[in-house]
C-alpha cells in the first residue's frame, strides 16, 4: 500500500471509532430519558429519539447569530470531547497515548467546558451568564475530590499513565477492590462532572431556561447534543478505566481479535452500569443550589477522597503492597 492509502485507512478507522463512541452516547441519552420517565410513571420518548433529534437539528440553520466566538463554541466543545475520546482507552483500544496522560486528560477535559462557556458568555444572555457562572463553580467543586482520587491512584500504582494503569489491573485485581474509598469519591465527583441531579444546577431548565444552552438552536444545538453524547462516554469510560480495569478481561496479545470483541462487550456493559447508577440518582434526587453543591463537594467527597489517599499512601509507601 502507498502512504496515501495508509493515511486514508487510518483516517477512516479513526472517524469510525469516534462515530461509534458518539452513537453509544446518544443511545445512553435515549435510555436515560426512557428510564427516568418510567421511574416518574410516564411513558417517555423512544430510545432512538435522540438520533432523530440530532439529525433534525443538524439539518437546520440557527437563526440566532452573535459573533465569531458564539459561532465557534459548539465546534470547539465537540472537538475537545473528540480529543478526550481519542486519549481514553475503550475496551483496551485507544487512538492516542503517552506517558503522564492522566494529567494530560485533566487539561483536555477542561477544553470543551471552557469553549462552551466562552460561547454562552458571548451571547450576552443573562440566563446563559448565570449558567456559566454555576458551571465553573461546580467544576471547582468536584475537581478537588477528583484530583485527590487521581493522586491516590498514581501513588498506589506508581504511574500517571493510563496504559500502565490498565496493564497493572489486567494482571492483578481491579482498583475498585483495593481502593474502594477512592472509587466512592470518584463516583460522587462523576455525578457532578455529568451534571446530573442533584448537580444539574448549570442547566436548570425551570430556573434559567437551560442556562448556557438558551441561545443555541438549529445546527449549533445539534453539535452540542453530540458534545453531550461524547461527554457521557468520556466520563463513564474514565471511571471504568480508573477503577474497573477498562473492561479488559482478555489479553489481546494472547487472544487476538477475540480479546477485542470480548473486551468491548465488557467495557460497554460496565459503562452502562455506571451510567445507570447516575440516572437512578438523577431520577429521585432534587436539585441542589450552587452554594449547597460547593459546600457538599468540599466537605464529604473531599473527606472521602482524602481517606482514600491516606489508604493508598499507607498501602504503597508504608506497607509496600502496591502493584
Taken from the alpha-carbon principal axes, the silhouette is globular
Poorly predicted runs are none
Structural class: mainly alpha
Number of strands: 0
Instruction: Indicate the radius of gyration in whole angstroms.
Output: 20 Å
Number of H- or I-type helical stretches = 14
* Topology order in helix (H) and strand (E) letters: HHHHHHHHHHHHHH
SSE arrangement:
Blueprint: H1 3-39, H2 49-58, H3 68-87, H4 101-122, H5 126-157, H6 162-170, H7 175-178, H8 180-193, H9 205-208, H10 218-243, H11 252-255, H12 257-284, H13 290-297, H14 300-318
Structure description:
By secondary structure, the protein is an all-alpha fold. It has helices at residues 3-39, 49-58, 68-87, 101-122, 126-157, 162-170, 175-178, 180-193, 205-208, 218-243, 252-255, 257-284, 290-297, 300-318. It has one domain (3-318). The protein has 14 helices and no strands. The mean pLDDT is 87.
Q: How would you briefly describe this protein structure?
A:
The protein has 323 residues and is mostly helical. Helices cover 73% and strands 0% of the residues. The radius of gyration is 20 Å and the shape is globular.
Please name the defining characteristics of this protein.
single chain, about 325 residues, mainly alpha, 14 helices, globular
